[in-house]
Amino acid sequence: MDDRFTSRQVIEFTGITARQLQWWDERGIVVPEHEGHRRLYSLDDVAEVAVICELRERGFSLQRVRKVIRFLQRELGKRLVETVSEGNEFHLLTDGRNLYLEDSAHAVINILKNSRQPILSVCLTDTVQRLQSRIGKKHVQSMKTGRRVSLSGIRRRSAS
Fold it and tell me: pLDDT tens for residues 76-115?
């Protein structure tokens, strides 16, 4: 399949270390397909890694990250790339206790306005778009060097 990425490619796209990626697979946080000893990640897997990396950079514990990923999977009902490619902007907000998933600017503003404590916000759509941009740039570079990176499934569809 062309829309799978190796561990090395995931590391290039997200900045994660090889050991972190392996550990997350072993713990069931992001589980790629396995072909022998090779791990092959779908675009959705890579998007989840990118979101997790962003949350970890913002100080989330791995236990909290697990809860966020389970919450996203439950709330979205589909994988991350498919959801954000449908034209909506999704924002993940948390006050440390509660998680909110919002797709309207008005709802995000209401949460920020009515909060009595600091709110952390991550725009999931922006994270996925940055990842797609990195993959696109790597694709252009690989075309120059003769190496191949697949872009199938990476599209931004306009809302109908």
Answer: 887 777 777 666 788 989 888 888 888 888 999 999 898 8
Tell me the pTM.
Answer: 0.75
**For the chain, domain boundaries:** 4-145
Examine the pLDDT at 25 and tell me if it is beyond 50: yes
State which fold the 4-145 domain adopts. Answer: Multidrug-efflux Transporter Regulator; Chain: A; Domain 2 (1.10.1660)
Q: What crossing angle do the helices spanning 18-26 and 7-14 adopt, rounded to 10°?
A: 120
